[in-house]
Amino acid sequence: MISLAITTYNRYEMTIESFSKVIDDERIGDIVILDDASTDGSYERLRDYFEGNEKVRVIRQVKNRGMSLNKKDAIGLAKYAWVLIFDSDNILDVNYLDALFAEPFYLTNVIYLPDGAMPQFPYQEFSGLFFDKKNVKKYLPVKYFEQALNTCNFFVHGPTYSRIYEENKSVLEVDTLWFNYLWLKAGYGFKFVKGMEYFHRVHEGSGWLRNPGLNIAKAEEIKKLIKDL
After folding, report:
1. Is 213's pLDDT higher than 80?
2. How distant, in Å, are the alpha carbons of 37, 39, 54, 146, 193 from that of 10?
3. Cα separation, 178 vs 172, whole angstroms
4. Inter-residue contact 86 to 92 (CB < 8 Å)
5. What is the DSSP code (8-state) at residue 130?
6. Number of other residues whose CB lies within 10 A of the CB of residue 122
7. Residue 144 pLDDT more than 80?
8. Residue 212: cis peptide before it, omega within 30 degrees of 0
9. Cα-to-chain-centroid distance, residue 4
10. CB 194: neighbour CB atoms within 10 A?
11. C-alpha to C-alpha distance for 62 and 14, rounded to whole angstroms
12. Is 128 exposed, middle or buried (0-12, 13-18, 19+ CB in 10 A)?
């Protein structure tokens, strides 16, 4: 049994759609939606929509924490140790879970990454591969690898995530790449799980598109830190 943690901000409809295909899946025993102090009434609407559903908890931050801290807090609120952390503007389906649960076992020092953020970002070239600081550097120039390391929507051991996490207020929309640097720095690794795909929605409200120049510059800084490990 796993937890599904959804982070959201001003995304009522998208949030509901993001996990509607797996809400009744018995492999997910707990769903926590953490609203980052929405300003458009999304929290209240989500709370009312899921009222009476014992599996789903809708929680609101007292004040806006930002993308990175909201993910950390959502993972910390999960009931189960193993957590699928997912962005509210993407769409999860049963095929993702089938691939994840086909893994023979889970290691607390491994993040299990999707091998496709479809249709824009295919990561199938990395399917089944394991990466740590010993081999990750040579893959950084490979097409889509940087995007893969900045893709949240992954499966992780929550207590280990919380222990490794360090806030960096400057990273903004490359917060997952920053966290994955911390993960590598700790001596931990990643595995791309074959067939673990989800639908990655690119839209005007996407965090990356709000600050593309700054995000690219920060990504280059973090890639240098990874190269120096």
Report:
1. no
2. 8, 7, 23, 27, 31
3. 10
4. yes
5. E
6. 17
7. yes
8. no
9. 10
10. 16
11. 22
12. exposed
Output phi, psi for 28, to 5 deg: -100, 115
Residues across the chain? 229
Amino acid at 228: D
Quote the pTM value: 0.95
Residues 101-133: tens digit of each pLDDT? 999 889 999 999 999 999 999 999 999 999 999
Residue type, 137: K
Distance (Å, whole) CA 25 – CA 145: 30
Q: Which CATH architecture has domain 2-227?
A: Alpha-Beta Complex (3.90)
Q: Per the structure block, which two tokens stand in for 14?
A: 């998208």
Look-up of token digits 């550097």? 137
**Residues 5, 152, 97: CA angle, nearest 5 degrees:** 60
State pLDDT tens for residues 163-207: 999 999 999 889 999 999 999 999 999 999 999 999 998 866 666
Q: Determine the Cα–Cα distance for residues 52 and 3; give it in Å rounded to an integer.
A: 18
Hunting for tokens 């899946």 — which residue is that? 25
pLDDT digits (tens, 9 = 90+) for 18-76: 999 999 999 999 999 999 999 999 999 999 999 999 999 999 999 999 999 999 999 99
